[in-house]
Specification:
271 residues; seven-stranded mixed β-sheet
Length: 271
């Protein structure tokens, strides 16, 4: 298990290095986010049990990155933005990049190593307005997820009673038939990009894993600051202490999180 997890981490590190080359060629700023930032500070690399990498790119540079990636990344890379992926990741604010090195989990599904690319959007001033904007986004994302209602597990352990009731109601009433996928998708994108990043004093990975904890002053990101990470360097937010404290509290205390099962990784000569 540990050996396979390490292989996965190194494959993701190879993907990350290609991302960095692309960003440097086109002057695209990026930041290590969430557990990747924590690993860089606390372990100078991956958290030993972490199984993914999270990088944030400000909205003004997102399209620039996506277009350059399609043109310039090696052919064994794939920018993935499928409808099914939207069930698991944030619509239009998170992008998977995969290579043809496969890993198989205990569910017998086949995956590729990937790096999550999180889009950082502008947010309004005022806490109430920010929270309402986040809630608006989450509501629209919920409507979009109804289009994949057959894949959603009602009784997942982390779901509240309210969430389970909403999912069951959506299945019974077939709410995905009320709002078209195209209409909801456009509304969601419009919501995410409502506030101009450059002129905003606050920003967020809207609808991110930490929800309201992923909202912070733009000054907290500041200038991308390189630090050691494994055998290379990675950019952190300028005020990384404040960023990590807001997410994790005393972030130097290790709290184990079980990684996803990794049973086998097929070697690839591409990385």
């Amino acid at each position: 298990m540990k050996e396979n997890l390490r292989k996965l981490q190194l494959a993701e590190l190879g993907i990350f290095k290609e991302v960095v080359k692309l960003c440097e060629r086109h002057d695209i700023p990026y930041y290590a986010m969430a557990g990747t930032a924590l690993g860089a500070v606390r372990h100078k690399g991956f958290i030993p049990w972490d199984d993914d990498m999270d990088l944030g790119i400000p909205r003004p540079y997102y399209e620039k990155f996506a277009e350059a990636a399609k043109r310039e990344l090696p052919q064994y890379f794939q920018l993935e933005f499928s409808k099914i992926a939207q069930l698991y990741r944030v619509h239009d604010t998170r992008l998977h990049m995969k290579v043809e090195t496969f890993m198989t989990g205990t569910d017998s599904d086949v995956y590729s190593p990937f790096v999550d690319l999180l889009v950082i959007d502008g947010m309004p001033s005022g806490k109430l307005r920010r929270n309402l904007h986040e809630l608006h986004y989450l509501f629209l994302r919920m409507l979009l997820k109804f289009h994949f209602i057959q894949y959603i597990q009602v009784d997942a352990r982390k779901r509240s009673l309210a969430e389970r009731l909403v999912i069951r109601t959506a299945k019974v009433l077939r709410l995905h038939k009320v709002f078209s996928y195209e209409w909801t998708s456009k509304k969601l994108h419009r919501c995410a990009t409502k506030y101009d990043y450059d002129s905003s004093e606050w920003c967020a990975v809207i609808g991110g894993y930490y929800r309201f904890g992923d909202i912070y002053p733009k000054s907290r990101l500041g200038k991308p600051t390189p630090v050691p990470f494994e055998d290379t360097e990675i950019n952190l937010p300028e005020e990384v202490h404040e960023y990590l404290t807001a997410l994790y509290g005393d972030y130097m205390v290790e709290v184990y999180r079980a990684p996803h099962a990794v049973d086998f990784i097929e070697e690839s000569s591409n990385i």
